Amino acid sequence: xxxxxxxxxxxxxxxxxxxxxxxxxxxxxxxxxxxxxxxxxxxxxxxxxxxxxxxxxxxxxxxxxxxxxxxxxxxxxxxxxxxxxxxxxxxxxxxxxxxxxxxxxxxxxxxxxxxxxxxxxxxxxxxxxxxxxxxxxxxxxxxxxxxxxxxxxxxxxxxxxxxxxxxxxxxxxxxxxxxxxxxxxxxxxxxxxxxxxxxxxxxxxxxxxxxxxxxxxxxxxxxxxxxxxxxxxxxxxxxxxxxxxxxxxxxxxxxxxxxxxxxxxxxxxxxxxxxxxxxxxxxxxxxxxxxxxxxxxxxxxxxxxxxxxxxxxxxxxxxxxxxxxxxxxxxxxxxxxxxxxxxxxxxxxxxxxxxxxxxxxxxxxxxxxxxxxxxxxxxxxxxxxxxxxxxxxxxxxx
Amino acid sequence: xxxxxxxxxxxxxxxxxxxxxxxxxxxxxxxxxxxxxxxxxxxxxxxxxxxxxxxxxxxxxxxxxxxxxxxxxxxxxxxxxxxxxxxxxxxxxxxxxxxxxxxxxxxxx
Lengths: 398, 109
Prior knowledge:
The complex is a heterodimer of chains A (about 400) and B (about 110).
Chain A: E1 10-11, E2 29-31, E3 40-42, E4 54-57, E5 62-64, E6 83-84, E7 92-93, E8 100-104, E9 110-112, H1 114-118, E10 123-131, E11 154-163, H2 164-169, E12 179-184, E13 197-201, H3 202-205, E14 211-216, E15 219-220, E16 230-232, E17 245-251, H4 258-261, E18 265-267, E19 280-282, E20 289-292, E21 300-301, E22 307-314, E23 320-326, E24 331-333, E25 335-336, E26 346-352, E27 362-368, E28 391-393, E29 396-397
Parallel strand pairs in A: 8-17, 21-29
Antiparallel strand pairs in A: 1-2, 2-3, 4-5, 5-6, 8-9, 10-11, 11-14, 12-13, 12-17, 14-15, 14-16, 18-19, 20-22, 22-26, 23-24, 23-27, 25-26, 27-28
Chain B: H1 2-19, E1 28-29, H2 45-51, H3 59-62, H4 69-81, H5 92-105
């Protein structure tokens, strides 16, 4: 990676840069440093209930967190949590009118009010990373089309709700059930287009920690995050965390709907950009990742002085085991911060005693307890899913 | 017998209390910001405004990495056949021309 490519700096128009494209001159922008560009993104308009976010798209909303959001703590504030909608969502939801239909292969289909959902079982809270399957897609080399995210389509929150299995029990899962499918209130504008519906294998749906959640960080889910209810599947990419939950459908066979059978899929085996017609598997679990958050690419550090680097990491579907700071031919173990739960962000820190060595292309490398380690090179795929290559930056000691 | 039943009821009530504290669900609404439909000048711009931006903001297209004309044809085709976008077939070449033009006119970064 070339020096300067990953620079993430908030630029104010007219502040001495010539890199700004004309249409963005009047706006506050951020440079995502996407290889080959375009990497500049506006930080406005502001959305209700959101702080400063990278506006990837206004309709349907796609908002990314600037990496500075991850400099402190492990919980991402709700107003900085990334936003991703495939289709337009309703802009108003009346709580007393909302129902969740539970049907398909069940003993007795039911239509549940929000109060009935809340009464379906024990209330459970879990801290878990929510990460878009396409997070970091814009950094793919070669580039691929799709939402051109930097690495800010991720967040960590405390989710509160009832277990999905307790909601399913109100209808009674029938014999032969294989998958559980979810639909929200977000529907296509056009007749005949595929609705954004997603399904989980039954064993995942019945897990102790898979929730129908109504709160994030002890606040009701904001509309942009799926009010009044969303599915939470710790360890799995957020494509399964269906928002504005309105329908739960138990399936007895495979799910042939578009967003499961045809989209959100990875090559079954490694591919190159020249490969066509290869077998695919669904994107499911989150692999381990780590990020340096104390410094950005291109930052200057004091030569000859101790250098403290900090960041965040997560194991994804498996607990985080370790984080190492890696350079070109060296690595140093990092100290992990408090464990806030196996699915949470975890902070790490490391001190280099003397910042004078080679700080070119340094990165944090996470490993999980199952032996998965972030790879040196990108597992390229045509949709840019599940990126977890080591993210490297270059610092200058002077 | 009656005492046992009463105890059982009490126990049930306690469990219910423990497991399901009241959650207050208030109505929610949001006013989304206007989309200024910022599209650089170029041949075919009107075709894009007429056929594409009813469903999504222009940024979706403008932020894409530079790709071939064939790729843009395939993307517009996917909008029509998969997502059922009411894109006039006659407008497709103009839309593709516009995207190719905008990407070529973009400063290299």
